[in-house]
Amino acid sequence: MGIAVISDTHGLLRPGVLEHLNHCDHIIHAGDIGSYEVVERLQALAPLTLVRGNVDTVGWAAEIPQTEFFQLETTMMYCLHDLAQLDLDPVAAGLKLVITGHTHQPALFEKDSVLYLNPGSIGPRRFSLPISMAKIKLQDGQLDVKFIEL
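Given the sequence above, the corresponding structure tokens read:
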């Protein structure tokens, strides 16, 4: 299964990003979506899991959850915008992956056998941080994460 992980679009879907989203089996957006048009475009490409970020405050965003606990194949995942607001114990919840955004900085680390992934930001450039996203190959419960810098 091929999974695209994005965050912090802030209303901007770059053409280069769309190339990487085509042919994915699932898209995960870790918040700060910025506009409903982004949601519509992503839904047209693949099944979508998304959470609301701190800039998603207008009417259309009210229906989007702040956190999402979900399963792809047999792998349990959790998505929220800001890791500082993690509201559960990932190990006790049986999670294999926690996905966040907010910092605009790509990061991948493991703690207590749980992977933590921040794909970075694909929206407007912030400071000197890269424009980045992640792709995950999920096979037999194994996660192979690769960052894509645009």
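The helical segments are 15-21, 36-43. Try to locate this feature in the token string yourself.
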